[in-house]
Write a structure and sequence with these properties.
Blueprint: H1 2-11, H2 16-30, H3 34-44, E1 53-55, E2 58-60, E3 64-66, H4 77-81, E4 87-93, E5 106-109, E6 114-117, H5 126-133, E7 142-147, H6 158-169, E8 175-179, H7 194-209, E9 217-221, H8 227-238, E10 244-247, H9 261-267, E11 271-274, H10 278-291, E12 297-301, H11 307-316, E13 320-323, H12 325-330, H13 333-344
Length: about 350
């Protein structure tokens, strides 16, 4: 209640990107000191043996994760763990630092409880993130590494960026996510087509198999795929050692929004996240679960703003879930409420 009545209104007076940065810095600061660290844990953590999950050989303390894009540069993963997350996905990281698309590039659609972003994989580069990951404290918190390509890298050389990031990041994260589904890097979604995607995934998995202890590798897909594209991805997953699929990334659709068309036109391009994705995400999860091999895991993300949304995704076939936009609108208490609902379900 404090978040919605006091903290959120203040944050929502600020530019969304600035508010996000302040929140990360503040959490990182207060999470360093034992008294405030303990207070945060006591307020937001919910523990139960019923919440533990063994997924692809990793033990998750609970099935609720933070989606990529929130802690792009691995600034506050340990502190985010204090809020009750079972796992945190950093990134999207690229080999070289890049500033992303011109500002403003993050917009709130308050009536829809949604966000539109065209960030463009802004990050400080993989080497900076690695330095921060070296000081990782909470060994129970699973960390995922979401990797993408630099904007300046030609599409035909995209695999080099993914390979570089995979090799560099391998010792420091617990699982990987191949992100070819962001709508904010030109032509990136072309990598979701069957031929280039098969080549890219096989290269990453071949490298993974050469490691003494291979790590789970997931593919993050867009909600805007056609049925035939989705079938191609299912075929690739079923015929490879891909651990599973994250469904879904943001959408380029603006269908069914309450926000006025004039405001949407003023905002322009970008990926939409939040409540408008709830139904589409569940549809894709159900289709994936029906057609994927049983050993392939699904991480459900998109439009989770209350515990029931999370439970519906799990019932649709997701093994784990992730939040992002709902976390911004509902605050950190959302994680505790979801975990409690899952544990008692």
């Amino acid at each position: 209640m404090i978040y919605k009545s006091f903290i959120r209104p203040i944050f929502f007076l600020l530019d969304p990107e600035k508010a996000h940065r302040i929140a990360l810095v503040g959490l990182s600061f207060f999470g360093r000191f034992y008294p405030t660290k303990l207070l945060i844990k006591n307020l937001f953590e919910y523990k139960s043996e019923n919440l533990k999950r063994d997924i692809s050989g990793l033990i998750f303390q609970n099935p609720v994760g933070l989606a990529a894009g929130f802690d792009k540069d691995a600034d506050a993963f340990d502190e985010l763990g204090l809020l009750g997350f079972g796992f945190v996905e950093i990134g999207t990281l690229t080999p070289k630092a890049q500033s992303g698309n011109p500002k403003p590039r993050l917009f709130r659609l308050k009536k829809d409880k949604a966000l539109i972003n065209r960030m463009g994989f802004n990050n400080h580069g993989i080497n900076i993130a690695i330095e921060k990951l070296k000081s990782r404290k909470n060994k129970n918190l699973i960390i995922g590494g979401n990797i993408g390509k630099n904007k300046i890298t030609p599409l035909e050389k995209a695999d080099q960026d993914y390979i570089y990031s995979f090799e560099k990041l391998f010792p420091y994260v617990d699982y990987f996510v191949i992100n070819v589904s962001s709508p904010n890097t030109p032509n990136l979604r072309k990598l979701q087509d069957k031929k280039p995607l098969t080549i890219l995934i096989n290269k990453i998995l071949n490298l993974n198999n050469k490691k003494k202890y291979p790590k789970p590798v997931f593919l993050k897909i867009a909600p805007d795929l056609t049925l035939s594209q989705l079938d191609d991805i299912i075929d690739i997953a079923n015929n490879s050692q891909l651990s599973g699929i994250i469904a879904t990334n943001t959408t380029i659709s603006r269908e069914g929004l309450i926000t006025s068309e004039s405001k949407l036109n003023a905002i322009g391009n970008g990926g939409l996240s939040g409540m408008p994705l709830t139904i589409r995400s569940i549809e894709i999860i159900k289709y994936l679960r029906k057609n994927l091999n049983k050993n392939k895991k699904i991480i459900g993300v998109g439009g989770i703003s209350k515990p029931q949304d999370a439970i519906e995704k799990l019932e649709a076939g997701a093994d784990l879930i992730q939040v992002f936009t709902g976390f911004i609108y509902e605050g950190p208490s959302l994680i505790k409420r979801i975990n409690k609902a899952i544990a008692l379900h």
